[in-house]
Amino acid sequence: GHELLSEERSKSNIAVDKLSLFMFGKQQIDRKQRILKILQNEKVFDKSQNYFAGRIDRFETALARAKRLRQLQVKHNWTQEDKFTANELISEPGPYGLHESMFLITLRDQGTPEQHEKFLKPAQDYEYIGCYAQTELGHGSNVRGLETTATWNAEDKTFIIHSPSLTASKWWIGSLGRTANHAVVMAQLIINGKPYGPHPFVVQIRDMKTHKPLQNVHIGDIGPKFGYNTMDNGFLLFNKFKVPHISMLARFSSVDPTTSKYLRPASPSLIYGTLTWVRSTIVLQAGGVLARGVTIATRYCAVRRQFQDRDSKDQTGENQVLNYTTVQIRLFTLLATTYALHFTGRGMMQLYEANQKKMSQDAGKASSTQRGAGPEETHSGSDLLADLHATSCGLKSLASSTAVDGLEVCRRACGGHGYSNFSGIGPWYADYLPTATWEGDNYMLTQQVARYLLKSARSVLKGNEPTNDTTYILSNFLKKSDMGAAFDILGKDEDLVAAFAWRSAFLTFEALKHRDEQKKAWNDLLVDFYRLSRAHSQYMVVKNFYEALNAPNVSDDLDTETRSLMHKLFRLYALHTLESEASEFYTSSAVTVRQIMLARTNAVMKLLEEIRPHAIKLVDAWDFPDWQMDSSLGRYDGKVYEDMFHRASELNPLNAITVDPYPNSPTLFKEDDSRQFKSKL
Amino acid sequence: GHELLSEERSKSNIAVDKLSLFMFGKQQIDRKQRILKILQNEKVFDKSQNYFAGRIDRFETALARAKRLRQLQVKHNWTQEDKFTANELISEPGPYGLHESMFLITLRDQGTPEQHEKFLKPAQDYEYIGCYAQTELGHGSNVRGLETTATWNAEDKTFIIHSPSLTASKWWIGSLGRTANHAVVMAQLIINGKPYGPHPFVVQIRDMKTHKPLQNVHIGDIGPKFGYNTMDNGFLLFNKFKVPHISMLARFSSVDPTTSKYLRPASPSLIYGTLTWVRSTIVLQAGGVLARGVTIATRYCAVRRQFQDRDSKDQTGENQVLNYTTVQIRLFTLLATTYALHFTGRGMMQLYEANQKKMSQDAGKASSTQRGAGPEETHSGSDLLADLHATSCGLKSLASSTAVDGLEVCRRACGGHGYSNFSGIGPWYADYLPTATWEGDNYMLTQQVARYLLKSARSVLKGNEPTNDTTYILSNFLKKSDMGAAFDILGKDEDLVAAFAWRSAFLTFEALKHRDEQKKAWNDLLVDFYRLSRAHSQYMVVKNFYEALNAPNVSDDLDTETRSLMHKLFRLYALHTLESEASEFYTSSAVTVRQIMLARTNAVMKLLEEIRPHAIKLVDAWDFPDWQMDSSLGRYDGKVYEDMFHRASELNPLNAITVDPYPNSPTLFKEDDSRQFKSKL
Ligand SMILES: Cc1cc2nc3c(=O)[nH]c(=O)nc-3n(C[C@H](O)[C@H](O)[C@H](O)COP(=O)(O)OP(=O)(O)OC[C@H]3O[C@@H](n4cnc5c(N)ncnc54)[C@H](O)[C@@H]3O)c2cc1C
Ligand SMILES: Cc1cc2nc3c(=O)[nH]c(=O)nc-3n(C[C@H](O)[C@H](O)[C@H](O)COP(=O)(O)OP(=O)(O)OC[C@H]3O[C@@H](n4cnc5c(N)ncnc54)[C@H](O)[C@@H]3O)c2cc1C
Q1: Predicted-complex ipTM score
Q2: For the domain A130-266, what is the CATH superfamily, name and number?
Q3: What band does B377 get if pLDDT is binned at 50, 70 and 90?
Q4: CATH class assigned to A16-104
Q5: Cβ of B127 and A662 within 8 Å?
Q6: B 269-298 residues with CB below 8 A of A?
Q7: Cβ atoms of B160 and B242 closer than 8 Å
Q8: What is the mean pLDDT of chain B?
Q9: What CATH number belongs to A271-364+373-620?
């Protein structure tokens, strides 16, 4: 079977290297090679027991790796990008994960210079190892509902951190369970009996020497999860635990230690900026996350043969399952999606950076924002950020749901072998899965998008001039809605984009009618809002993909054949999405029933056929090293079966056990040499 | 929060007991209670470490449980149903799994009386412990492509079983990896150099005393999987391994030991009967599989509160998340689906039993069937079985995909806590997942359904009278297609059923046009076939649900209020399915765009509201004991947080470990008392 992959590669003219270069740039490609070499030479990063080890062994290995990685960072003077690339190659969550992200970021963004000296420095030196403790057993999405209190005690100028109930226990906190000695704790600030809402406090939680929890602090790991088991997500309860005045991160709000007055030295818009940045990163990564599954499944389905094709002339040997159209409709549409998401992620990041620039120019102008208690206004942030905020919410929701669901489609496309962990898809899926829930649950985020679209539509209805793309497509729709639309979706790429814009605008004004004219309750509209957000986000993906392919640099960077193939991927993504959501496109009159029929039975099927010869090279361009994917099915050389067999027979500890199988014998294991397989650390 | 569940229960008049009785019957409900009591009293079945233990410990525990279960079966003289119920309550695959199913069934169905004596008897006594070894590393779906050979050796009247290549290795074989000492091996029979296709052989593979593999037999466990890790799926290679003449299961075909002639003593239709039975069982179970997830998520979402509802008058406390319509649209549509699948499973089993009766009356008449090599005819079986076969293929595919995907929807509806294994959904999902792949991959099975529908349509076009429901709806469509349809889907339940029938018939004739008139290649139609099969199967579900609710006994068994609620569930399932597949319903002119709009914005939303007060009782009626679900979130008493906390802090071995977190210290674990948590067996 494995020779099939090189045959596939010889059948396509696509210049893989050039395409990779176009997607990632030389710097990133070189960086990956450089770091990969270092990691592969370190025994502790050997992955061969990853799929076999139980939770405790995996956690132990992950800790050893986290330590070594930090040492390597110091040794090689790695930048943030270098470290990030190393983590991508290792591909497992590690016990320093939250220390290195939210803990450091929060200290940096929300601390004063004095607090940087006191907390950030030792944290950067890994003397303080921290976590970000916001979520509680009883409250996640609703941050304002947190129960942990931080009561200002003017007498001795301390805060008393307290968990008044079981549900106040911090929960899900990454790196907390076993690893961290400090935590940023979000707690309700109370001054003189008056609540001021959640604020961040830096709290030491474990002894610096013994690493045991301090007195009046109760900590533990929350137990096994669907994935993410190399991480020690933890719980944390405080029993009237005192911390000094300096513990409250004071850049945006503080308590005057002498007057006990609540102060707001700066606008908190930067905090919302952080949230937006985190979501934008999720969008940026979603294409690559999905591409791993698509790479594995596409390569395997090119090696896997099953049945002869009865209608075909060639009756020697069996058909590669990649030739079956029910396999293609699953994998090639996802292949197109990986590219669509990649370019959307790029676009999202550019938007973010443009906005950061604007923000720093406008700094100071923005007034402080009031956050409402209801879902209609969570995380609303400042007006300045509104467009970016909505875009990041909508795309985070769409992109991560698409990646999650797509990975499972890839796994299933591999038939039985997809269920083996050696496929590499299942474990990867399981670790990625929470992305659909954290940083804003993917259903809830859609309310933010709808809220923004409604607001934009109201402004357009008032006759205000368009100020950005959203208001532009809304007013364009308003102008033309009487005469109707007639988009040549099968002939012109730009008409495809326009049809997506049309549907999004149509649904926006429908929703507005329900809310503003029919006065429907917010809750009764959530399902419509979900659809609206999805529609608008799909429009943004289609638009970003289209624009990336029509940028001026493209004709220099890609040869004609590759460019034309990229346009086919664009059309496949757009037309397949359109036919999957057909009813919204009809209802809005963006397309006719006949166009959908033609899209489905002709255009999409033809695109599958045209993409088929290039499928392997198109996944190759994603440039995943075998070491990163750790997959028998996705090997670059196609040696699928040899690798499965090797892992099962040589690396599998269960095979060092001989059982007594008879029901009436009390012996279970007659022989057990399985411990010999444990990784040497 | 937990008192919310009893409040919920007090708000609905539904008689849960009566509804359970209606669904399961008294016998099954009593059986469950009786067996549950026995299991709960046995220490070995204690589940408290299930979510924590690694693969080897879990396998060891599973083996201990399998043994004890067999002892209990003997002690209490359990019937098959009793044993089956015990397995459902334990809810984990066990090492005797394939012995007790496919091994015994194959010996029984395909063995001669002499072979029953020689193989079946010791197997029933658990001296022989077996497995069913069909799939190979290189071949699963395409059974005719198997590479393992069984060459008849006339000289010493033996068969030589051989694996000619690596890909010939048996793979995925349940109970083989460590447990079985015998296997039914499917191998290509070769007599005098001529191949006769795959046949079953009973082969001893391990020594009865030492339990080590016999010489020239290479066996092992295939390694960790996405789920199913309490089972030892194995691989198996033979090096010219001799077995005696009696090893070939000879009820349907055999080799004459003196003449070396190939004989076919009986028609193999019974074998196809077994496959149909297995698929029917999957359909029967799918509702309950999904209902576990729905029960857990619905209860949790009634306990979970998050945010205040801004539009609501009551501003005390937070809203139960079950009140949000985006939660309802996910959970209540699935709740309706569980009932729809339950009654469809019932219907499927009745069809199977009716057919078995007919078969035994017609026995002998049926001619032996030729199976084609291509996908168009795999597992076609005898004509007699054609309708049953297609129904079981279509419904197996739809029902198991629906259950799998629905479970993940339930898990995600629980927000962050859904990701904890204590939710009980993730591990259950992971174990059930392969059902979408085995017993016919859910994509491939749809070709069988399409083939049958095309055949039926051709017969109807020829003017043949309808002989069953399928040909009836096809000819009804033909008669009326000129004048068109006008179904009152929002007003009349029977019109809803008719609309589903209409769409299925429309798609059938469309597909027929493509195949017979436009002569499209089979492969180019696979995507259409997939849609067709899905459409037809959804029709069957809607029809079965409708008929179950309109059966004569219903008005005796259920009070008016419960009955009306069941009709609402019916409408919710049907209308929600209809709007999710809206474009096929338009295109076939079964409904108008306006009807879909009304279904979506009015009818479905109204049904959610009407079902809301009864949601908890409707999941209660599924009658899952807490012990079975093993879920913190799904507890009957709603003590969600207490249970999460208990498991994390009291049962979690990782918390017996103290780490050294500093990057430059080589120590990883300073203290490790985690082994104390290992289950005592
Ligand atoms: C692996 C993992 C790691 C994590 N790491 C951290 C960490 O390091 N630090 C930290 O602080 N937290 C962490 N979290 C917590 C995470 O941020 C929350 O779980 C997440 O925000 C979801 O919140 P929730 O669990 O409260 O969901 P809930 O809000 O309880 O959601 C439950 C259901 O209710 C619905 N719902 C809730 N409110 C509404 C509404 N207003 N309208 C409509 N529907 C609604 C949701 O859609 C969902 O279906 C982690 C979680 C996971 C799974
Ligand atoms: C947990 C588990 C337990 C199992 N236990 C046993 C056991 O005890 N004994 C045993 O013998 N087997 C067992 N199996 C094997 C199982 O029966 C096969 O894995 C299953 O039949 C799927 O076959 P496959 O893996 O060859 O899939 P493939 O046929 O390789 O499928 C790969 C892909 O190709 C597609 N495809 C293949 N052929 C066609 C076609 N003609 N047209 C269109 N698309 C096509 C499929 O849709 C799929 O997407 C087990 C499997 C699992 C996962």
Answers
A1: 0.96
A2: Butyryl-CoA Dehydrogenase, subunit A, domain 2 (2.40.110.10)
A3: very low
A4: mainly alpha
A5: yes
A6: none
A7: yes
A8: 94
A9: 1.20.140.10
